[in-house]
Amino acid sequence: xxxxxxxxxxxxxxxxxxxxxxxxxxxxxxxxxxxxxxxxxxxxxxxxxxxxxxxxxxxxxxxxxxxxxxxxxxxxxxxxxxxxxxxxxxxxxxxxxxxxxxxxxxxxxxxxxxxxxxxxxxxxxxxxxxxxxxxxxxxxxxxxxxxxxxxxxxxxxxxxxxxxxxxxxxxxxxxxxxxxxxxxxxxxxxxxxxxxxxxxxxxxxxxxxxxxxxxxxxxxxxxxxxxxxxxxxxxxxxxxxxxxxxxxxxxxxxxxxxxxxxxxxxxxxxxxxxxxxxxxxxxxxxxxxxxxxxxxxxxxxxxxxxxxxxxxxxxxxxxxxxxxxxxxxxxxxxxxxxxxxxxxxxxxxxxxxxxxxxxxxxxxxxxxxxxxxxxxxxxxxxxxxxxxxxxxxxxxxxxxxxxxxxxxxxxxxxxxxxxxxxxxxxxxxxxxxxxxxxxxxxxxxxxxx
Length: 449
Prior knowledge:
Layout: E1 6-8, H1 17-36, H2 40-44, H3 47-52, E2 58-70, H4 82-86, E3 93-108, E4 111-124, E5 132-146, E6 149-161, E7 174-189, E8 192-205, E9 215-229, E10 232-244, E11 259-274, E12 277-290, E13 298-310, E14 315-336, E15 342-363, E16 368-382, E17 394-409, E18 412-425, E19 432-444
Antiparallel strand pairs: 1-14, 2-3, 2-19, 3-4, 4-5, 5-6, 6-7, 7-8, 8-9, 9-10, 10-11, 11-12, 12-13, 13-14, 14-15, 15-16, 16-17, 17-18, 18-19
């Protein structure tokens, strides 16, 4: 008997339901900012002129198309029989995407408004049941009351199919993530800043299951920032979050909770020792407490450190190390071979991901550039809440991607990429190889041709 009680909780983003509750506050803040900003009232007199008129307006209309060949769409193991899993011996597919987008960028004295929005049609040539349309938007208002008090309000939405890297159920599952954030920066004195913010996030799945469960979080943060000079700063923040899984009932057998609280202490820094090099990073201690099943509590350190070096005016290289701890609930999840024999039992409470990447970039000419991304990652599944009959799952992933970009005119950009990913695991079901080839074109529709 197989129990597939697997919940992988990614970082969640915002709930659109919050919009109506803070709309009045946003309008009040915007009105106050408008009065504090000289010259804003002139542009506000005519809504059409505010969007399309004026020498500082920037409105862009774009169209793009992409074609991707994926050799192993469902990330099947090398020894797996595609016909048994998919009903066809071919595990590859060709995906086409067409996108229409609009962008807006306008500064009104001390206020700035930005918007990026698009709709994309995604089509699979073989596995057409995966076809979907997705919407994306990201809007922000950079507000300033006085030179000492500023901040931002942002709204975002994105839609994508949940990937198949850790899912053994081949269904179309469209994920919609929404995010709203309000943050502020109060310049106290000299080089010191007080920071504050609130947020609400949601992640909703079209095929609700314990594989990918919908979630919602709300949070607030306060912090202190010291900026010695532009590009050199250190910031300390305290984050407090409340979260829930709206579609998840309490599971007293496998100890799956439906709500939690989480507190974080975060340290961020940026340092540019020279004009050609820059460091950035963060270190976060997280403690998540579940409301009903303390066995699912999680705590630990996550962090990122990056280094960027400009070799010359035409070339640079980026290095990045990353460590992430995230919930990954699995209780007696069984994996069988072709004869029905159990080959692995997965029990885990959280996932630890350690990653190292390097990305060199070379501007071959003023219009042609090339970049490479090499990545090595280690994933460990830890924290079993029941006795585990075997070893905990351990994966290693290597990937290499090459990309060539060409901008023949200021209205047209072309890209092509070739990528290879290889994952190895002590759970043979999670070992796979995949090759992806992609070409794309993007056209600016309202530019000067």
